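Table S2 (text version). Query chain:
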Amino acid sequence: DDNDGVLDINDACQFVYGTYCHGCPIPSCQQGYAPSCPVTGAPVCVNALACIIPQSNLIINSNTTFCSGIYSLSNPISIQGDNIKINCNETTFNGANMNTYLFYINSRKGVTISNCVFEKFSFGVISLNNVNNSILLNNTFKNNPLNFALTVYWDTYNNLIENNSFLNNTRAFDIEGSFNTKVLNNLFEKN
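Corresponding structure-token output:
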């Protein structure tokens, strides 16, 4: 994010150069939304309600509310901070174009992901690795073929998976090497 006019690893947008925000070009936003430059990371589109339109390679380092809608991303969303709440606001993520997890969360604590709908992810949706004291709440995982919709792996402690729906997935989720992860009041159908 050095905005020095040189496309390098210090820029938030490492594959395209721009001068709008942190070495990135100005994003193309749909009607009713405007570009916004966060303190760090790539620029995003926001509306009057201060929600953010999900984009490929989005970096989240503070509490975030997504704008409701249906989004098909080709690259993951990165969570780069602790004690972050992500409210999807009933956003649907369609993973038909993804070859990786939408959220690969590693070495974090206090992350909450709520009110999301995830469908058609063949690789997986969320992977928690060495993640502690985090919450997955009121999400729907549906029609996800091939891999686990949710994986909770190694050195992951004191997490809560509550009030989620797992519907018509090839495999709902996998928990390995996780301690004191609570799975409460979830709905499982046709997994």
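Notes on Table S2: The chain has a mean pLDDT of 86. Residues 31 and 47 are 9 Å apart (CA to CA).
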